[in-house]
Amino acid sequence: MNHSFGSGSPVSQPDLRILVVGTTPDYIEWIQHSCPRQALFFTDAKVRRAATEGSPEPSDELCCDLTDYRGALGLLEKHLRIHGLALEGIACFDCESMELTAVLAEHFSLPYPSVKAVRNCRDKLTAKHLWLKHGLSTAPAAIVGSADEAIDFFRTVGGPVVLKPTNGSGSELVFECTDAQACADRYDQIHKGLQERCKHRLYRSLIPAVGPLIMAEGFIEGHEYSCDFILQDGRARVIRLARKIKSPTEPFGTILGYLLPAQLPVWVSEKRFNRLLYQCAAALGLERAVCMLDFIISGDTIVLLELAPRPGGDCLPFLLRCGYGLDILKLQIDFSRQQIEPPPPLSSAKRLVGVRVLARRSGTLRSVDVDTVASDPRVMEIHVIQQPGHRITLPPADYESWLLGHMIFAPDDSADIHAQCNQLLDRIPVEVA
User: Fold this and answer.
1) Which residue segments constitute the domains of the chain, with CATH numbers given?
2) Residue 127 and residue 138: Cα distance in Å, rounded?
3) Over residues 63-79, mean pLDDT
4) Which residues contact 61 (CB under 8 A, 6 or more apart)?
5) What crossing angle do the helices spanning 180-196 and 147-157 adopt, rounded to 10°?
6) Which H helix or E strand runs over 126?
7) Nearest to 262 by CA among 342, 346, 343
8) Side by side, which strands form the sheet with 301-308?
9) Which segments of 325-375 does DSSP mark as H helices, in order?
10) What is the rounded distance in angstroms from the CA atom of residue 262 to the CA atom of residue 56?
């Protein structure tokens, strides 16, 4: 196995680490607990300054400006040299850090998807073009450079359409448009939103001279799913399959929660699905990675939405740990050092729902009271991630601050799952001033 050292004189018996690039303080705490002294965290300085969690030991974390690739590399090499550390692998859990991770992996000769493959994944339109080139199903899409072009696309596909940034994540600045006027209004809203986010690492353009681009795609009706899978040795193997529970009352694309495990239609065999996963990843230039794929089952077709060479986030790692006995963050760390053990069979997963606790109005958070709902026999875990004093701004202005935490529960099979989610959420009083 190759070990990558910082520049300078060789260090005897170096402390081997997995470099975890750009992740969040809650994940850092998780990994420190499950993989003690195995990781070196390369953290964005702004993220660390805003964190309420405690910081790792100075040798275990390096904080800097992760938008400055050259400067970040120089600081990393210095940190490795000073603390006698060496890298045996590299991992990333966040979309905005994947390109930097690929750059560092190439510099240190560590196994990770190439910069080109990461860019193929991050640019949603490029991914769609490559999938179509390889005969895979995805929604029709095109770059729209003006409100008029958005309207033209709407008329070409016969509407409705979805407008979104080409390199965003989740439901942020994603809108469904059911008429021409909505296309014009939403285009202007996305354009303004991207200007306001121009310094956000997630929206740094893949083509800096051009700036973030806006994409229109045909709306696809169907049930939406998310899965994690391991890609290696020329094949794919599913780790996790969940059905998304959408919210009909929140902004378009908002996911209320996830049902684990999900069942695919009978016409989708395990062999066929694994083959599709391999094909859609290989089409983007991926050879070895832990991947997350979002897709829709529409009629008798699997329609590809988005793929990233990282495991799914949000409440999914907690849901997997609770219902499946699988620590997906540890699995990624082990995979990065090429020492992965086979995950448990999907059939062993308990039927659970992870539901997100979202604020319903803007303001300053006073309290989140989970005592009443915690006594419900269905509820297994509740995690509140925001403290009193937290400032809440609702979408579309902000898609992060309204997330207050999540809850995991075992659903009653005789009742509607969406109704159960709302019933339990209604029993969590949130006071906002």
Assistant:
1) 4-112 (3.40.50.20), 140-218 (3.30.1490.20), 221-349 (3.30.470.20), 351-433 (3.30.470.20)
2) 9
3) 95
4) 28, 40, 41, 42, 43, 48, 55
5) 140
6) helix 124-133
7) 346
8) 301-308, 289-298, 223-232, 235-246, 255-260, 352-358, 403-409, 379-384
9) 328-336, 371-374
10) 37
Instruction: Say if strands 352-358 and 255-260 run parallel, antiparallel, or are unpaired.
Output: antiparallel
**Torsion, Cα of 158, 164, 166, 167 (10° steps):** -160
The pLDDT score that the predictor gives to residue 334 is: 95
Q: Is residue 236 helix, strand or coil?
A: strand
pLDDT tens readout for residues 230-243: 999 999 999 999 99
How would you label 227-264 residue by residue, b for 16+ Cβ within 10 Å and e otherwise? bbbbbeeeebebbbbbbbbbbeebbbbbbbbbbbbbeb
The string of pLDDT tens digits covering residues 5-56 is 454 445 467 899 999 999 999 999 999 999 999 999 999 999 999 888 889 9
Q: Taking the CA atoms of the chain, what radius of gyration do you get in angstroms?
A: 22
What does the pLDDT read at residue 254? 85
pLDDT at 343: 81
The phi-psi region of residue 15 (left if phi > 0; otherwise alpha if psi is between -120 and 50; otherwise beta) is beta
Structure confidence by residue, pLDDT tens digits, 172-223: 889 999 999 999 999 999 988 888 887 777 776 544 445 558 999 999 999 9
> 3-class SS at 334?
helix
Is the pLDDT at 224 greater than 90? The verdict is yes
pLDDT at 210: 54
Per-residue confidence band for 345, with pLDDT thresholds at 50, 70 and 90: confident
> Measuring CA to CA, which residue among 232, 151, 155, 161 is closest to residue 184?
151
Q: DSSP strand E in 233-268: where? A: 235-246, 255-260
Choose among 237, 217, 215, 216: nearest CA to 228.
Answer: 237
